[in-house]
């Protein structure tokens, strides 16, 4: 039995659908879904679309992740083995070793689709296939043991998932030159801290609380003052204390073992458990309103004994704990004139401070755990990494708040990455490379991402602005959002009366979500008063004191002003400037939760885009968590919003491999005598010689402009086999020439980068010019005789600003005065205007994004720098259409709408083609409708003297009267004469109407 056969026999039964959807005989969405369902019913949860893995949560153990399965997938070519998460992990690892380039595995899907389990299996596989030295084993153990620890503190039971990640995690595993793990780093994103104090009915708080209460010994329960879960206000509101499939006692043992592995001492463990107990008891702390008239707004702690217990667990003075809850220190003035006032708090304010302290204690503890793990596995050297992204899935609950908004926002950005790198980029590559291709339509979710994050007007930006206002409320925030996004396709107003609450709607790629405005501002401000910070810093427990004094290192070097501000804060008693909740001295805005998360997402995207991506698309088959139960409607919805069908169409029509000619040569040049020992000529020519010599059939590949595209995997297998044999023959020689090779490789990469940059800049300019040229063909072809100047377009023809006024200060200031700060010049040129007396005059026109201007220029600039007056301003909304003749002239008539106070504008310009094309583009964007353009030889128009008419006539000769013929070398010769109530224009015959324009570089 061959290895290939044993893999398939052990991994899956025969003839159950197709394992790669590219092989479907009938390509449609129903066939795709039916194939997934058929395989899922047989326990085959993995299917692929080329390199993209689809994973369906089975809700039971399948026994396909043991050592036997790992051995079957180790080191195999991806086309030899059936789909499996180990296949993705092996491909990423092989690519890292072969190319020495960073890899990332992006796991996406909604909550409960199995993302966390998938990430665990990837870690398990990598740990099993790498080296076994003592140091490597230590690093692997640390990486694997970090999972149960972070799950205990960061996961919880939700209505959709019994082990739902309530934080985002990006785990980077760094490898040494031999391909063994030498370190790593974990980045966490936005822990759902509100879960500490409140949960939906049927859900649980974070696992660690139930593990602590169930798994602690009698002595520990006494030392930490632990009670049953029903007695804690932070746990009993949801009326749920257990989760199916979760053994809290066993999990607590695993958590404690993980703490030991990552280097958390027994003393630190005790302080962690004391802190967790204190957090739970904080929820039971209540307050009583002040009894005197003078202190009617004040309150006192109801149970002094309970507050003393909490204080002892945290390691602070009971009086200081009480004081930080029932009052707040307000500081006024600066420097030596600072005055401090103790302001009593109401019951509601005290409860808010209590909850804020509980959330802060837990959040900072979680961040400390992540830092502790990173300290144990981080290395100072830089090497290639495999990143595994396990982040919260898309969430649509009965009530969605601020947390769901940011969670769904990051899922939108991940969907955008998938679209960019698998649909958009791949199709653009085929077009760019000149490969025969039928485009596949797809839904681009970038507008939805921009709705949430874009500056200066995005939901998070407006939210930050509202948080700065003293009287900002959720109501005013909602009003601003409804106003700014009224016309946005992904935003909707909610029916406030019907739902009896303030809401708005976002049309996400995964569906429509209603967001409740409750506590939006408070959650975004993420306020923690200095009294509570000082309380934490005063703790006698080293852990508590450290987590409140910790200051994250700056992402970049501090400026001199930032250093002065920091020193000033420290002199005034603020050890950690990041914790200062008053308005900072340097006038910078305080960091909000939304702003911080947006920054984290931007950093994550930067990391992901710098890696070679691999994708696992997870599907949740049903809402009931039943094994192998298939909800057709739910699965179909996920298939659609994950873009699987579009991905299938792209992959089916595409090629299994594509490599730049130079890269292809670097990998396979040793296979042919004509390209060995080195190839210095044209890379494409080298590829042609190589493929001809090794006798690869010509129908198996296709040449692009810069890459070789290989359709089927068999030629790759053949070349890889030949390469392995050849390397064995050349290994002695390669060892001798290694140093020379490394130096040459660096040099070639540098030159290649310069060439790519140069080619990219030129390609971007030419691409835009080609797009506009094609649009001009749609406007003029078969409608109007052409002339030479209209057909010979330079690469810079469509830049538009022919008079170079976009940097003229007076022009810029005038346009901003006319339109506002967003005014931007799009086109400027000289024209020959037909005036009311049917005389031709030289004029200057400007076009912005929304208006058409005619200028009256002065003979020389005035002292204040002004050199023109705005003679006419025609808003696009008042423009009805453009009219041109069918002949080869350059006259354009701009018609205004009926009822407008403006009159039509007739002019002649040698830039007619560029003007009409750019004008049509700007009009479409401004008015959201196409600009009508008429072609006829008799044009009625309205001048200041009433109705007039242009009549065009094609003639063989213009006569000999020099006064009526244009002499400008850039203008087309014509004669004009006003006769019998019409302005008659005679034009020579032009090029045929079906002539095509060309681009002159």
Can you characterise this structure?
- The N terminus is likely disordered.
- This protein is an alpha+beta fold and 1001 residues long.
- It is globular and about 115 Å long.
- The longest helix has 43 residues.
- Helix 11 runs antiparallel to helix 14.
- It is built from 33 helices and 33 strands.
- It has 4 domains: 274 residues, Kinesin (3-Layer(aba) Sandwich); 119 residues, Methane Monooxygenase Hydroxylase, Chain G, domain 1; 80 residues, Alpha-Beta Plaits (2-Layer Sandwich); 229 residues, PH-domain like, CATH 2.30.29.
- It has an 8-stranded mixed sheet with strand order 24-23-22-21-27-26-25-28.
Furnish the topology, listing elements before pairings:
Blueprint: H1 3-11, H2 29-41, E1 46-49, E2 52-56, H3 67-73, H4 85-99, E3 103-108, H5 115-129, H6 134-154, E4 155-156, E5 164-165, E6 168-175, E7 181-189, H7 207-215, H8 218-223, H9 233-236, H10 248-261, H11 266-282, E8 287-289, E9 299-301, H12 304-314, H13 318-326, E10 327-332, E11 339-344, H14 347-377, E12 385-390, H15 402-433, H16 446-453, H17 459-468, H18 474-484, E13 491-493, H19 496-499, E14 503-508, E15 511-516, H20 520-525, H21 530-537, H22 542-549, H23 560-571, H24 593-609, E16 612-619, H25 632-641, H26 644-653, E17 657-660, H27 661-668, H28 683-693, E18 701-703, E19 707-710, H29 713-736, H30 738-780, H31 788-791, E20 792-794, H32 809-819, E21 825-834, E22 840-848, E23 851-857, E24 868-875, E25 879-884, E26 891-896, E27 905-908, H33 912-927, E28 933-935, E29 938-943, E30 946-955, E31 974-979, E32 982-988, E33 998-1000
Parallel strand pairs: 2-16, 3-12, 3-16, 20-33, 25-28, 30-32
Antiparallel strand pairs: 1-2, 4-5, 6-7, 6-12, 8-9, 10-11, 13-14, 14-15, 17-19, 18-19, 21-22, 21-27, 22-23, 23-24, 25-26, 26-27, 29-30, 31-32
């Amino acid at each position: 039995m061959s290895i290939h056969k044993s893999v398939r026999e052990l991994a899956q039964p025969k003839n159950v659908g197709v394992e790669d959807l590219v092989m479907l005989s009938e390509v449609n969405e129903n066939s795709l879904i039916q194939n997934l369902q058929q395989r899922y019913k047989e326990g085959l949860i993995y299917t692929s679309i080329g390199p993209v893995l689809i994973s369906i949560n089975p809700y039971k153990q399948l026994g396909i992740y043991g050592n036997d399965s790992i051995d079957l997938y180790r080191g195999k070519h991806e086309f030899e083995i059936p789909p499996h998460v180990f296949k993705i992990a092996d491909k990423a690892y092989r690519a890292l070793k072969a190319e020495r380039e960073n890899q990332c595995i992006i796991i996406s899907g909604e909550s409960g689709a199995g993302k966390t389990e998938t990430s665990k299996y990837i870690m398990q596989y990598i740990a099993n296939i790498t080296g076994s030295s003592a140091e490597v084993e230590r690093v692997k153990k640390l990486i694997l043991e970090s999972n149960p620890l972070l799950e205990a503190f960061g996961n919880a039971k939700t209505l959709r998932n019994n082990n739902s990640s309530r934080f985002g995690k990006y785990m980077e595993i760094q490898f040494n030159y031999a391909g063994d793990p030498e370190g790593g780093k974990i980045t966490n994103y936005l822990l759902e801290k509100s879960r500490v104090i409140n949960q939906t009915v049927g859900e649980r708080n974070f696992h660690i609380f139930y593990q602590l209460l169930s798994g602690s010994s009698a002595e520990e329960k006494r030392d930490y003052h632990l009670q049953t879960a029903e007695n804690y206000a932070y746990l009993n509101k949801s009326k749920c204390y257990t989760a199916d499939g979760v053994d809290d006692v066993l999990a607590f043992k695993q958590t404690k073992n993980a703490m030991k592995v990552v280097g958390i001492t027994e003393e630190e463990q005790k302080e962690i458990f004391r802190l967790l107990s204190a957090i739970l008891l904080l929820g039971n702390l209540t307050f009583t309103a002040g009894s005197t008239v003078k202190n009617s707004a004040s309150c006192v702690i109801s149970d002094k004994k309970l507050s003393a217990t909490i204080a002892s667990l945290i390691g602070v003075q009971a009086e200081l704990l009480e004081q930080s809850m029932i009052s707040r220190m307000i500081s006024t003035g600066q420097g030596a004139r600072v005055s401090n006032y103790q302001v009593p708090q109401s019951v509601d304010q005290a409860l808010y401070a209590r909850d804020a302290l509980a959330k802060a204690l837990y959040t900072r503890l979680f961040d400390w755990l992540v830092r502790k793990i990173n300290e144990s596995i981080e290395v100072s050297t830089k090497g290639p990494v495999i990143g595994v992204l396990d982040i919260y899935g898309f969430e649509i609950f009965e009530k969605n708040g601020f947390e769901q908004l940011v969670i769904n926002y990051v899922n939108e950005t991940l969907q955008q990455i998938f679209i960019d790198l698998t649909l958009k980029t791949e199709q653009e590559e085929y077009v760019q490379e000149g490969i025969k291709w039928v485009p596949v339509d797809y839904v681009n979710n970038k507008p939805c991402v921009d709705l949430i994050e874009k500056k200066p007007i995005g939901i998070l930006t407006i939210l930050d602005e509202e948080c700065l206002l003293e009287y900002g409320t959720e109501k005013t925030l909602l009003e601003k959002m409804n106003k700014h996004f009224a016309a946005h396709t992904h935003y909707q107003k909610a029916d406030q009366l019907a739902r009896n609450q303030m809401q708005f709607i976002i049309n996400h790629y995964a569906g429509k979500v209603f967001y409740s405005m409750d506590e939006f501002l408070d959650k975004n401000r993420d306020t923690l008063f200095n009294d509570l910070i000082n309380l934490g810093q005063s703790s006698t427990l080293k852990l508590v004191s450290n987590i409140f004094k910790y200051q994250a290192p700056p992402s970049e070097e501090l400026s001199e002003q930032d250093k002065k501000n920091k020193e000033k804060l420290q002199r005034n008693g603020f050890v950690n400037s990041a914790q200062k909740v008053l308005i900072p001295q340097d006038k910078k805005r305080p960091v909000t939760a939304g702003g911080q998360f947006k920054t984290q997402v931007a950093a994550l995207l930067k990391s992901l885009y710098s890696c070679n991506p691999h994708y696992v698309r997870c599907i949740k088959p049903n809402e009931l968590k039943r094994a192998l139960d298939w909800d057709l409607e739910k699965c179909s919805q996920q298939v659609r919003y994950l873009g699987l069908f579009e991905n299938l169409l792209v992959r089916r029509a595409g090629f299994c491999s594509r490599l730049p000619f130079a890269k292809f040569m670097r990998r396979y040049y040793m296979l042919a005598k004509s390209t060995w020992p080195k190839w210095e000529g044209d890379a494409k020519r080298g590829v042609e010689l190589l493929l001809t010599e090794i006798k690869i059939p010509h129908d198996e590949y296709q040449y692009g402009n810069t890459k070789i595209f290989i359709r089927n995997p068999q030629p790759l297998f053949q070349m890889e086999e030949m390469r392995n044999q050849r390397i064995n023959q050349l290994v002695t020689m390669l060892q001798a020439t290694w140093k020379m090779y490394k130096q040459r490789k660096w040099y070639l990469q540098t030159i290649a980068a310069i060439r790519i940059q140069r080619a990219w800049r030129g390609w971007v300019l030419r691409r835009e010019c080609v797009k506009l040229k094609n649009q001009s063909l749609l406007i003029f072809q078969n409608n109007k005789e052409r002339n030479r100047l209209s057909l010979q377009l330079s690469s810079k023809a469509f830049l538009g600003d022919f008079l170079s006024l976009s940097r003229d200060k007076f022009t810029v200031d005038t346009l901003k005065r006319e339109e506002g700060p967003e005014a931007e010049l799009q086109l400027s040129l000289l024209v020959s205007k037909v005036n009311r007396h049917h005389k031709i005059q030289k004029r200057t026109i400007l076009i912005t994004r929304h208006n058409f201007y005619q200028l009256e220029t002065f003979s020389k600039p005035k002292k204040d720098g002004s050199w023109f007056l705005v003679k006419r301003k025609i808003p696009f909304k008042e423009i009805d259409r453009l009219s041109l003749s069918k002949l080869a002239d350059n006259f354009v008539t701009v018609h205004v709408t009926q009822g407008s106070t403006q009159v039509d504008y007739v002019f002649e310009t040698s830039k007619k083609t560029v003007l009409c094309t750019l004008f049509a583009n700007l009009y479409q964007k401004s008015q959201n409708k196409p600009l009508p353009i008429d072609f006829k030889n008799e044009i009625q128009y309205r001048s200041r003297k009433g109705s007039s008419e242009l009549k065009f006539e094609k003639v063989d000769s213009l006569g000999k009267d020099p006064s009526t013929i244009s002499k400008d070398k850039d203008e087309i010769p014509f004669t004009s004469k006003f006769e019998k109530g019409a302005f008659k224009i005679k034009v020579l015959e032009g090029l045929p109407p079906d002539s095509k324009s060309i681009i002159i570089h």
